Amino acid sequence: MARLPRYAIKNQPQHIIQRGRNGQQIFFEEQDYQYFYDCLEAAAYNYNLKIHAYVLMPSHVHLLATPGDTDSISRTTQSIGRNYVQYFNECTGGSGTIWEGRYRATVVDSKNYLLTCSRYIELSPVRGGLVKKPADYRWSSYAHKTCAGRRWS
Length: 153
What we know:
Blueprint: E1 14-19, H1 30-46, E2 49-56, E3 60-67, H2 72-92, E4 104-107, H3 111-122, H4 124-127, H5 141-145
Antiparallel strand pairs: 1-3, 1-4, 2-3
Helix pairs in contact: 1-2
């Protein structure tokens, strides 16, 4: 069966989710999170994807992003797939994909939902029991908004 086409709407925010295959963990150590973050930052810059909110959870990733081009999301996720998956497999001795199918993306159509979606993403570590306060989780935009050195808005 052929894949259904994706909505590729330039300048329209989308909530993007990428999960580990069968719920498997995709990050084990700080260096894994950092490598993924670096891949994401470079790909988002190269393919004109503006990141508004993100969280890197042990088994999945959430992004709230606005594509500057119709192929910004797909090219960014492909780049991460080429780089992070290779890194992950080298570190774990695995092979093949680590993802549960293609990424999922939902168009965010109102400014009110944009804030709601951002809050949902940034509170994921609290809901997942990883931290008590969102500021305590290093791998989210909540933490990035409270510390210097990160470049996204």
